[in-house]
Amino acid sequence: MSDGPHRSLPLKWHWKPVAEWASKDAWSISDVVEATSRALERDLREVPLRSIRRILGVGPEASLFAQDGNAVVAELDRARIECRGSAIGNAAIDGALQAVLEGDRGELACQRAIQYALDRNFRSHSRGIEEHYQRKAGDRSARHMRDRLGAVGSRCDFGDIARRHSKADVPAARASARARRTGIDDGPAMPL
């Protein structure tokens, strides 16, 4: 007997709690948002943030001479080597390219790049989770999962995560550990 389709889900280990908690109404949307934020921050480790910050001109590493858009685009394309095979890393570079083409530079462009990557990464994982639930548990369960993940996506603050990671003085942030719930009243809220 299985504990649910989330066990056989072909995802990285830090996305499995998101799928499990989203599938069960015992976990509030806030709990799932928290797990999603941790998973997204963990995925950001694959993004070449230092290179993107440097290229976009964030912080003290920024060049004193403004580069033209074509040079920045070429450098961003070369930065793809650092994240070969990483969907979120390539999405961050795509977001940075879009920001540069629209005239943004510096911290704002970096923030837009990271926010784009987070949004795209979340949507990709959400589709994968929903599709897996469709195959393993049926249409009703997949619809429930879609609704829950849609609520999570609307409440998850990608902009806040992006702001924290786009700052020049911030070292590569580590995802915070999940708070242990050991008390008798801890755990998922009981429906009334």
Structure, explained:
The chain is mostly helical and 192 residues long. Helix content is 60%, strand content 0%. The protein contains 8 helices and no strands. The model has no long low-confidence stretch (mean pLDDT 82).
* Backbone CA Rg: 19 Å
> Which structural category fits the helices and strands?
mainly alpha
Proportion of β residues? under 5%
* String of helices and strands: HHHHHHHH
Catalogue the unreliable spans.
none
Describe the largest sheet: none
Number of strands: 0
Shape: elongated
Helical segment count: 8
- First-to-last CA distance: 29 Å
How would you state the average pLDDT, rounded? 82
Helix fraction?
55-70%
Quick tags:
mainly alpha, single chain
Secondary structure layout plus pairing:
Layout: H1 16-23, H2 29-43, H3 49-56, H4 69-79, H5 87-101, H6 106-137, H7 139-155, H8 158-166
Helix pairs in contact: 1-2, 2-7, 3-4, 4-5, 5-6, 6-7, 6-8
